[in-house]
Structures are given as structure tokens and as C-alpha cells.
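Quick one, T. Sequence first:
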Amino acid sequence: MEKNGISEYKVKGYKIRITTDGNYLVYSAKPEYNFDQDPLLFTELSSIVFKNKERLGKKILKFDELISVLKSIFMWKVLEIDNLPTEPDLFAELFIHKLIKLDRIIPLFLDDGVNEIYLDQMNAPIYVDHRIFGRCNTGIVLEEEEIRSLLNRLKLEHPITITTKKPSLKIEFKTNDFHMRISMDFPPLSPNGPTFNIRKFHRNPLKIVDLIKLKTLPSFIAAYLVEVVEKRRNITVIGEPNSGKTTLANAIDLYTPKHWRKIAIEDAIESINQTELGYKQLSIQVDSFESNRSLYTKTSEILKLLHRSPDWIYLGEIQSSEHTKAMFEALNAGLKGIQTAHADSVEKILRRWENLHKISVTDFLSLETIIIMKREILKTSFIRTIAEIYEVNANNLQIDKKYGFLTKVYDSSWDKKRTIDTIKEESFIKEKIDSIIKRDISFQHHVEKIKEQLLTVR
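C-alpha cells:
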């Protein structure tokens, strides 16, 4: 993909185009075969499905099961078609997407380049946040029948009920091809009709060298953070929504030694499944903050960590007062790991924890490393960066400051020399400065190699 003028790439049966339209970028997806131009074939295949609908059985079929059973019903006919424009399997899936009335939105689900999908009200066009190109309009205005088809599919995936007393839902939709968290609101909560916000979880998460390439952080800060992880120091990543907190946390988390026992606690699984990469990792999914259920709460599971003997923990989205108190109980008991929380400055997160969640200031000493992420909104895109990094150190306490135990070791406005000098003089890993410099050089070489490979491909 190339960020200039027009870009094209393929996503499992669809051709994706990024174009410019005045001051906006436009995202469009075109199927490799358009059944609207061949209604007779669509009718014929639909008829085969209808005549054999008993083969769908009476049990509720999840999305992957539905695709598999439908293919078994009509695939023989697909294989008889001459000069297919794509592979038979993909052709069959394009038909199914059309059949279940999700054909216009499902390319957004399949595209690993799409981060988030938004619908603000009925009859309004969908827009997306793209990993490379930022915010893009789509021109897709879903009809009521399409929204109903999406909602029906979600009801088949999860036991949910929408009423005037409970006009919202927040669920995961996971298949072999995509993994998403969907939040939907309905009247009377959203007076202009159904709305949704869909957060995608990527099959190929960004690694730390990718983040260097995207200018989320410089290579020497990446090197510094790897040393912080290897020293097993707590890391708290804060930032506004969609600022890249989880992406950074996942990238850092991959640098833990593989023999560590790791436990991740999240309401929506956004951490990477590391077991298949050779790590020892236990993932625990709890009820969401918005859920009416309280069977598996984040608070109770965090407290159970004290009896599960983790070497490293991952706590996604610390939100409520109960979450915060449980997190600090775990950290003060000596547990180490990565946490994420919402705030746009270190002072605001500490004030909220102190004044609203009633956490003692002395408990903040267990935080150790605090990273502040920023999201800058440009004309047609976003830039997500590490804005600041603080270390918590009681030995450097400045009496004249409210939170005088904070030592800033990085600011995005600093040059490299100032950052290196600050780490060398004030950081709790100052003895690792030579390792940081060597790793910095290694990261630079790795990024350059990726750039050369991309140029070769083009």
C-alpha cells in the first residue's frame, strides 16, 4: 500500500481502493464478482439453498458453521461454472455475503487495515479509521434491512436482548477471518436510529519495529522500553481513546522472556494470543464494564492473581474505582506487568485515582513507569505517538511538587541526545545505557531492512 493519491490492495475476494475526494479520503470495496450484474445466477444459487434449507438443521449456527454448511449445499453448482473470476471458495463466500445481506459491510470486517468502523445514525454513511490512511469516508449508507441482518447475526452469535430499558449491546464477534468488539445503541438512547462503533482486533498486530516505522516512537525509546520490560518494571500506558495504548502494550509485551508465566485479564481480548508463539500465557475474559452481569468481574479476577503465581500480568482498560483499587492491591503485593487506562496526562490520571478512587499517593510508587500516548488529528489522518515517559522514583522526590516522585525521562519535543543524557543520569536503568544504544542501532537496521523490502516489492 502506498499513501499517495490512490492505493489499491486485495482482501479475500474484494478489491480495496483508497482515493481522494477534495479534502477527504474515500475507502471503497468492490467484490471480485458482482452478483447485481448477474441476478439470474444469484437467484439460481439462492434457490438451491432454499430447496435444501433442512440441511441447515435446527441448531443455531455460528458464522463459520453457517459458511461451511451453505458451501456444502451449493458448491457443486459453483464448480460447474466456467471461467470463474476468482477461486471457487472465494466465489462461494461472496455469494453467501450477498445472501445474508452483509456484502457491503463485510469487506470492512475482513480488512486488517481497518481499525474502527462507525455509524452515527440511521441513513448516515459509514466511515472508518484505517491503520495507514487514517479516517476515510465509505459512502456506504446501510438500509434498515442490512442493519437488521447484522443485528440478527449478532443475536445468533450471543444471547442478547434489546429493549427500551436496555437499548445497548457490547459484544465480541469472532470468526476464522475477523475478530471485533461491537458496541451498538438503539432508540430511545440513540433517537436518530441505530448506531454502532466496531473496534477491530488485528490478526497481524503491529510489532515494535512497525511502530518505529510509523513514527509512534523513536528507535532509542523502543530500545529503552525493551530494557524496562526485561528489568520487570511495571508499565502503565495511558492516553485518550484510540491513541494506540493497546497496540503499544502488545508490542512491548512480546519482549518478555518466554519462560515467564503471564496472565492477561480483559473484558474484550485485545492482547495477542502468545501461547502459539511459545510463551506461557493464560488469558481471562471478564464481563465488560457496561455489562449487567457480575459473574466474572475484572475486580475479582485481578484479586485472584495473588494466588495464581504470575511472573507478569496484563490488565486491559482499568476504568472504575473498583478496578483501580484492585490493580493497586495487586501491584503493591509485588505483581509486575502492563496496565492501560484512559487519560490525556499523567497529572489527570493520578488526580482521578487520588481524588475520585481514593488511592493513597504513596501507592503510586508501585507504578514505576508511566507512558503517555497522544493522538493528533490531522486533516485526513491521525498520528499516534508516545508523548512523554515518566519514571516513579521516591529517591528523586521533589518536595515542592504535588507529584514530586515523577521523573520525566522522555518528551517527544526532546532531541535524542537530551533523552539519552536524561536516561543516563536519572533513569532506574541507567546502567543499561550501553545495551539501549546497541539495541537502538539494531532496531534502526531492522526498520531500514523493512523499507528496502517494501521498495523491492513495489
